[in-house]
Amino acid sequence: MTKFLWTQQSNFGPSPRSGSAMAFDSDRKRTVLFGGRSTNNTFVGDTWEWDGSLWTQIEDIGPAPRFLSALVYDTARKVCLLFGGNNSQHLGDTWQWDGIKWTKLSESGPSPRSSHAMAFDSDRSRTVLFAGQSDVNFHLNDTWEFDGDNWTQLQDAGPPPRASHAMAFDDFNHRTVLFGGLDANPNSLGDTWAWDGQEWVQIAEFGPSPRLEATLASTQDGNLVLYGGLTSILNGADRRILADSWEFDGKRWTQRQDIGPGPLHEAAITFDSLRARTILFGGITLAPDGSTPATGNTWELPATSVRVTSINIPSNVTAGNHIVFAVNLSRPAPVGGVTITFSGSIFATNGANMAPITVDPGTKSVAAVATFAPTANPTTATFSAEIEGTPPVSATVIVNP
Question: What region does 234 belong to: left with phi over 0, alpha with psi -120 to 50, or beta?
Answer without folding.
Answer: beta
